[in-house]
């Protein structure tokens, strides 16, 4: 089989041994006689998979013990609704930095549930830069402050995190998770 090199913004190449192991385990996971795709999410075997995944993620990302790890379905688009529905519960306000399509979608969805405020945007130059922030524009009683860490469509990435004081920093890291060390304790939600 001829392997294709994939440099697109979405999924990337996996090492062939990983693919072969996944193929083998697709039919029979660890001698259980079933695929992970077929087993109950309440089974001991599946609980072991989740516990192992959480443990490894905590180790690699150095996730503090006071943080919860949630394995959720639905992708980024459903997270755009889940975040304000769960976090926009105090003042009903949230701040956003618009740096591309994904941050804009998150902002528009949050605006359906509360007062979503744009503190900065790089739309004026087709999202080709990360805008400088003026802390005076921040909403002091915001329930959270939202950024998209890596904007694959426009090629921009945060190298320095905004200082949001007591307002939890929420970041979409779906396109850069595990790509570099990150101080998880700087965030309220990733």
- Form type: globular
Number of domains: 2
Helix and strand element order: HHHEHEEEEE
Distance between the termini: 38 Å
What's the β-strand tally?
6
Low-confidence regions: none
Counted by DSSP, the helix tally is 4
Instruction: Enter the CATH topology name of the largest domain.
Output: Aspartate Aminotransferase, domain 2
Radius of gyration: 19 Å
For the largest beta-sheet, the strand count, sense and barrel status come to:
4 strands, parallel
| Structural classification | alpha/beta
Strand content: 5-15%
CATH class of the largest domain: Alpha Beta
List keywords for this structure.
Aspartate Aminotransferase, domain 2, alpha/beta, 6 strands, 2 domains, globular, 4-stranded parallel sheet, single chain, 4 helices, 14% strand, 190 residues
Please explain how this structure is put together.
The chain starts with 15 loop residues before the first helix and ends in an 18-residue tail after the last strand. The protein contains four helices and six strands; from the N terminus they run αααβαβββββ. Helix 3 packs across helix 4. The chain is an alpha/beta fold. The mean pLDDT is 94. A hairpin with a 4-residue loop joins strand 4 and strand 5. A four-stranded parallel β-sheet has the order 2-1-3-6, with helices on one face. It has a two-stranded antiparallel ribbon with strand order 4-5. The chain has two domains: 46 residues, no CATH class; 112 residues, 3-Layer(aba) Sandwich (Aspartate Aminotransferase, domain 2), CATH 3.40.640.
């Amino acid at each position: 089989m001829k392997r294709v090199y994939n440099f697109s913004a979405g999924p990337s190449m996996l090492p062939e041994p990983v693919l072969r192991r996944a193929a083998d385990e697709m039919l029979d996971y660890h001698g259980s006689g079933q695929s992970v795709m077929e087993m109950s999410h309440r089974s001991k075997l599946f609980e072991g998979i989740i516990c192992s995944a959480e443990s490894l993620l905590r180790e690699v990302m150095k996730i503090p013990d006071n943080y919860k790890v949630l394995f959720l379905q639905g992708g980024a688009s459903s997270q755009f609704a889940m975040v304000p529905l769960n976090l926009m519960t105090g003042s009903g306000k949230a701040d956003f930095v618009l740096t591309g399509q994904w941050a804009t979608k998150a902002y528009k969805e949050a605006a359906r549930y509360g007062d979503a405020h744009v503190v900065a945007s790089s739309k004026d130059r087709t999202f080709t830069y990360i805008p400088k922030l003026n802390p005076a524009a921040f909403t002091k009683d915001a329930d959270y402050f939202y950024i998209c860490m890596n904007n694959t469509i426009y090629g921009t990435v945060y190298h320095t995190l905004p200082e949001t004081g007591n307002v939890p920093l929420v970041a979409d890291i779906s396109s850069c998770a595990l790509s570099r060390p990150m101080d998880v304790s700087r965030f309220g939600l990733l």
